[in-house]
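Z., the sequence and structure:
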Amino acid sequence: MKQSTIDNLRQAVGADIIITEDHILEERRHDYSVISQLDDLQGRGAARPGCVAQPRKTAEVVTIVNFCRENGVPLIPFGLGSGVVSGVIANPEAVLIDMSQMNRIRKMDVHNLLVTFEAGVRGSDAEAALNKQGLILGHYPQSMAVSSVGGWVATRACGQFSTAYGSIEDVVFGLEVVLPSGEVFETCPTPRASSGPDLKELFLGSEGTLGIVTAVTFSVRWKPEKQAYSAFYLADMDRGFELQRHIIQHGWEPPVMRQYDASETKRNFPDHARGADALLIMIHEGPAGKVAAEMKECLEIAIDLGCEEAPVSVVEKWFEDRNHVPTFEEFLTQGIIVDTIEIAATWDKIGGIYRSAVTSLGEVENIANASAHSSHCYRSGINLYFTFAAIPGDSRQMSPVYYDCWRRVMEATIAGGGGIAHHHGIGRVRRPWLTAELGNPGVGLLQALKKTLDPLQMMNPGVLIPGD
């Protein structure tokens, strides 16, 4: 980026908003995706952005957007950088707009159970602020401490307690968004509307390609009265899928329902693993009477399906360790290429996709692990989280193996009739398969939206939308 462009942007928005310090540019070159970290280690890392803009209020975002549009400069939104599908890759001609300084609580409305946060508020900070009022958000992604509320909206995120509380689209009440035109769009604060299509849905999952989320209003909850645990051993994954289906289709909604295949049970819960059995863990919370009734009914359903109780200490271990995982770098520096891939499907398709994807991953040369667990359950289907790890003898093969593993899971999911992304978004990693899911009409609709809202293609180019 020309120095004159940076100088003009500083003049437009304020010198203290535009950052060119080396360490800031270096830290914001890309998100947390495995392949970006591998590229760094192997000398192919992304370039630095031309500059970083750190707005503190919506009016400054408007000024930055207008400047980039009027000067033909790409604009890359950046939350806290926890994305894992290459949704952020900087280039030296772009302005990277870092939303982390927009981190205030705008309004706390306890009477209506509404709270409005600016987009850069850290998830764990949002929850802590609510807890002081006896409230909870109900949205708890594993990245809670390293992701922003605006990032949750941009990637259409899902949290660990989603079975009862829903995903991000179920807890978002309203949005404030700066459009590529520089206009500010705000949704009406009403619990439901029949005023045409729900326009806030345009930005849920838009990954910074259609506008910049500047504030999010959530419909929150009171803290639950009681929390309790249960767990069951399963003869196989299909038995567990049936158990979960029966539980939720009978009207019970344990916020956490996580099913691990035998491989993942041994790896994550070695003290509780039992031969080739899979494992289902559940957390029940809410009014004490509801929790007691739910646990009783879930136990009866499990017994009817031939499942055996497992120690609740396994759930306690998960709850304690749930957000503590090894970094990707720890594996990459040892020559191990590893990642997780989440998909979803209806109940009749999930078993076939599980077997097909794990079998295909197992055919990769030097594969060390091919396994899966489920973590989000619905009346009409469920998600799966595949984990792969491979140890190529030649480090130059780590990148090709990575893409081969992704291809195998994507192809198994598409062939099995599933959805290729449950909650991490599309980014660049999944983009080659988006047409297979949406079809040409669906991709054409996305492209038309992009052309209408962002005719200059300046917003996070190369992400999500095929052909962008």
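Residues 268 and 318 are 8 Å apart (CA to CA). The chain has five domains: 3-100, 102-222, 226-321, 328-429, 430-468.

Let me know what you think.
H.
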